[in-house]
Design a protein that fits this description.
Layout lengths: L5 H33 L25 H29 L8 H24 L7 H32 L12 H27 L24 H29 L4 H26 L4 H25 L3 H12 L8
Helix pairs in contact: 1-2, 1-4, 1-8, 2-3, 3-4, 4-5, 4-8, 5-6, 5-8, 6-7, 7-8
Pathway: Porphyrin-containing compound metabolism
InterPro entries: COX15/CtaA_fam, COX15/CtaA_HemeA_synthase
Keywords: Cell membrane, Disulfide bond, Heme biosynthesis, Iron, Membrane, Metal-binding, Oxidoreductase, Transmembrane, Transmembrane helix
């Protein structure tokens, strides 16, 4: 059976739809996880993987903090199950899929399992502030947990991009190489921004500079300097400006590339950038309300994922996919002993 067979095409279309479902549920998990952290409910249960020693702890729905954390764990379990199904589905059809699909599915599975372990260690190692050394370790795992969530989002988004029927319809042009290079560079800057943001968030430095765009006293540069203020300045001013410039340049380059399948996500990228800037400002002006702060986190993940999505599409290698398809249709003979 070759890749043009109608039954194969239909099956691959359902696989692509399922991958999009995984992306949507993953973003729901990012929101729930972000809201749990913002609300201070991350340690509603002091054990893991069970919650108070049970899969269905008593009173978890009536208690707001328990409901957030246990809901977070249940949603994480759902995402893990969906990614596992997606992995085996891709594995079963790997000969009819683009060559990049199997590695991406494998990394998505490794990523979701690693994320679960990091989340568990974040709970197990959290001593509720009793020992300073252990608290530092627990905070490190909280930051890693937040950053790895962004990577997992990008992995499932990249896999969905490769599995999409549009992947085989993209007409590669010479301008794609420049779009891809700028896309990966921009994604790198955004990830650094996310790391600084997660660190600032978990260290409680989100309002170290409580005004925007000017610092207290009316100047652009804060008059007081310490680790928290400098970290806040780096996130809300320096890296924010650097990311914004590169996102605008990337969107412009993608729009003028002549390929609608790059131009459309580039427009979305600009919308997400504007939304992220506005959300960031409102978070500061309204002193970090939980919903706005969480939306800022989720939109940041979407901005990162959209950038990676454009970079992945611009890095399209049709010859490699054609080779994979040809190999599945006409397999090479086994080497003789």
């Amino acid at each position: 059976m070759n890749s043009a067979d109608p039954q194969t095409t239909t099956s691959n279309a359902w696989l692509a739809r399922f991958a999009k479902l995984v992306v949507c549920v993953t973003f729901v998990l990012v929101f729930i996880g972000g809201y749990t952290t913002t609300s201070g409910a991350g340690m509603a249960f002091a054990d893991w993987p069970l919650s108070n020693g049970s899969l269905n702890p008593a009173g978890w729905w009536e208690n707001f903090m328990m409901r957030l954390e246990h809901g977070h764990r249940l949603t994480a379990g759902l995402v893990m199950t969906l990614v596992l199904i997606l992995f085996f589905w891709v594995l079963s059809r790997r000969r009819q899929l683009p060559r990049a699909a199997m590695p991406l599915a494998s990394w998505a599975l490794v990523g979701v399992l690693s994320q679960a372990v990091l989340g568990g260690l974040r709970v197990i190692l959290d001593p509720q502030g009793i020992e300073a050394t252990t608290t530092t370790i627990a905070t490190t795992f909280r930051i890693l947990h937040g950053c790895f969530a962004q990577i997992e989002v990008c992995l499932v988004v990249s896999l969905a991009a490769v599995l999409s029927p549009m992947w085989s319809q993209i007409v590669v042009k010479p301008s794609f190489r420049k779009v891809a290079r700028l896309g990966w560079l921009t994604a790198g800057f955004i990830f650094v921004q996310l790391i600084v943001g997660a660190t600032m968030r978990h260290l409680g430095a989100g309002l170290a500079i409580p005004t925007f765009p000017l610092a207290p006293g009316g100047g652009f540069m804060p008059k007081t300097h310490n680790a928290y203020v400098d970290m806040n300045f780096t996130h809300t001013r320096f890296l924010a400006l650097l990311v914004a410039i590169h996102v605008i340049l990337l969107a412009r380059r993608a729009i003028v590339s002549g390929e609608a399948r790059l131009a459309r996500p580039a427009v979305l990228l600009l919308v997400l950038l504007v939304a992220q800037v506005l959300l960031g400002m409102f978070v500061i002006w309204h002193l970090r309300p939980p919903v706005l702060t969480t939306l800022h986190v989720v939109n940041g993940a979407a901005l990162f994922a959209a950038t990676v999505f454009i970079a992945v599409r611009a890095s399209h290698a049709p010859n490699a996919d054609a080779t994979n398809e040809s190999a599945s249709t006409h397999p090479l003979p086994e080497p003789q002993a």
